[in-house]
Amino acid sequence: MTQITTDTTRSGSGMCCLVSGQVAFAGSGPGDPDLLTVKVLKALQEAEVVLFDRLVSAEVLALAGDHSQLEDVGKEGFGPSMSQEEICARLVTHAKAGKKVLRLKSGDPTIFGRLDEELTACEEAGVAYQIMPGITAASAAVAGIGQSLTQRGRNSSVRFLTGHDMKGFADQDWAALARPSEVAAVYMGKKSARFVQGRMIMHGANRATPVTVVENASRADQRVLETTLERLPTDLAEAAFDGPALTFLGLAPRQSAAALAELNMELA
Length: 268
Ligand code: SAH
What we know:
Strand order of the largest sheet: 3-2-6-1-7
Bound molecules: S-adenosyl-L-homocysteine
Number of domains: 2
CATH architecture of the largest domain: 3-Layer(aba) Sandwich
Structural class: alpha/beta
Radius of gyration: 20 Å
């Protein structure tokens, strides 16, 4: 029988739950500091060492406690600027030195966050840890286009997939994705846009399938590209997004920005 353990990390108000010599793996959300959970905010203020990734926003980092030591272990694209081994080693070293360590990852740490490598490193070193969820990019991006990830009568499941993995372009169940009304959120999908488009069409997807790319979701500089499967690579190249971008296959914005602005004006 599986033993269910009680969550001892829950805290009410006031101080959070960081423990000296332990690591908290936390999600910073998609960038807007208001999308941090209260728990992660408390952890950020309490941590003695914060190891953060490239996509953790400056606004979030600004909320760290005055005494917190901030370490940028940012990974650029697919080539980590600091190796995974080195990041694991630093986590373990700080924890063994008795620090309250916060490992801050963008979005939710359990989604394309290379969390398991770091959990394993802690386990092997006998370092205790906890995981604090965050709002993933797909949730922020879909909110930004007024859509739902699932909708009765349209799609009863949604896929989170990556265009790229460590071996290159990531293979997926293209036949399933190509079916009408399917919805997928593609992380790290900019470079693989043409590959994804090609595979989808090869498996029978309608070329007119709506596709929306949201850059910098939840941030002040958020941009939305509304396109189709047919036009995706061309329009994406033209848009020249240089921030993190989330691609939705099978979703168009609920309303065009202009229509929404008009509606807001009418209601004001
Ligand atoms: N753990 C993160 C994902 C890390 S992978 C999460 O849960 O969100 C990095 C990819 O996430 C980026 O290439 C991009 O596709 C997506 N991403 C992260 N932040 C984003 C943002 N603010 N807007 C759009 N996409 C974002």
